[in-house]
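#lab-general

N.A. 3:47 PM
ok so I finally got the sequence cleaned up, no stray characters, all 270 residues accounted for. can someone with queue access submit it? mine expired

B.Y. 3:52 PM
send it over

N.A. 3:53 PM
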Amino acid sequence: MLILGGLGLLLIVADFHYNALGTIRSSLAAAATPFYWLSDLPSRLAEWGEENLGGDEESLREENERLKQEAFILRGRMLKMSALVADNGRLRELLNSTALLKSDDVLIAETIGVLPRPDRHIIVIDKGSDDSVTLGQPVIDAEGLMGQVVEVNPVSARILLIADASHAVPVQNNRNGVRSVAEGTGRLDELELRHVAATTDIKAGDLLVSSGLGGRFPVGYPVAKVSSVIHDPGQPFLTVKAEPTARLSQSRHVLLVFSGEQRVQVEKAP
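B.Y. 4:20 PM
back already:
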């Protein structure tokens, strides 16, 4: 031990005076460098994360928010597009229904309001006397007769629907030509045929069309389909219910029908 201790002391003195251990110390320092780097790695990673990931996280948040907003806007546009497609489909159905009108002229109108009275079924359309609309003019949709004009203003008109309790339409059974009158019940989904004799040939599913009697509605417009026929023994009349073919509570676009005579009278008016 004394020999090793003396040797160590000799090396220290020699290194102090002659830098004898410089090369060895440099080699050891170089060999230890990787260990220093590894020991400092966690702190370096933390620092790099704060400088880089922090900024990236913020930008990612901003980008995510922007994409959410764009997606929301696109969904809104898609909904609007879907509504436009549906409107176009309904308009095509409406225009296809003009095959029933033969030589009659028509004018497309849009529903803009509903009379806020539970005891009346009246809608308001965006066409009026400025568009040659007249009192009593028939109104249809793509499925059938909706009603008639009961009030006209320069830029709008009111339509009394066939379901109104005060409305009645002369009809005939499309299957056999039997005539009757379809009256409104105050319900949008139901009409009633009154005073139908118990011996009348009528059954559920029969299509009722306008008969043209009374001169208000031209012949052949679909009005309703018979939904039920009840025969109470001993009673002289049947209880006949029918469902309107027109979409009274749904149709946004309607057709105002001009008969040949109406169009001539309008054109001659000053």
